[in-house]
dTDP-4-dehydrorhamnose 3,5-epimerase
Amino acid sequence: MSKFKKIKTSINDLYIIEPTVFEDDRGFFMESHNQREFAQIGMDMNFVQDNHSKSTKGTLRGLHFQVKHSQGKLVRVIKGQAYDVAVDLRENSNTYGEYFGVLLSAENKKMFYIPEGFAHGFLALSEEMEFIYKTTDYYCPECEGGIIWNDNDINIDWPLEEYELTKEQLLLSDKDRKLPTLKEFNRDN
Ligand SMILES: Cc1cn([C@H]2C[C@H](O)[C@@H](COP(=O)(O)OP(=O)(O)O[C@H]3O[C@H](C)C(=O)[C@H](O)[C@H]3O)O2)c(=O)[nH]c1=O
């Protein structure tokens, strides 16, 4: 029996991963990744890079992907909370263009595995939010692609109201503000 529980989502190959958390009067301990234990739940991908970003509340990073050197990502939140979203961009997938979102937090310790071929983004929901993730391929700036966060066809239900956020308060990079819709991206690439 693995120390990790793999939970299916509405999209094939996209999983929530729940670690075993050992709590005692000092606090807690958990393994956040273990190659052998992951292989036991059919997740034998290799990770080559670890990332760490910090975002203030209302920061929205995404929706990003790499056109070549597509990255699988094992993501989790170690401070605060975030709404994390994966969009299926795998050619011929019967859920192409569909998204799945999950609330990740330091408290729930949930992890989310986003396979290669997906766009990824998240909305920071707490004043301070720290996000760490492992990737299955290296960063390739010249391979970067992206889809605008509020693409009407994908229609992501970002939890703005629940967290007292308005569209005007969202903090995006200049790059992310200018991203195309999925239709525009496919037309131009
Ligand atoms: C992603 C990345 C970035 N950088 C440098 C490039 C820039 O100078 C700086 C900030 O990059 P960027 O604004 O692209 O960071 P994010 O907006 O957090 O991008 C990430 O956001 C979404 C949520 C993702 O899933 C991707 O991992 C990634 O696209 O870090 C690196 O040196 N290595 C990297 O792997």
User: Anything to note?
Assistant: The helical segments are 35-40, 174-177, 182-188. Residues 51, 53, 61-62, 64, 73, 120-122, 139, 173 surround dTDP-4-keto-6-deoxyglucose (CB under 6 Å). The chain has a mean pLDDT of 97.
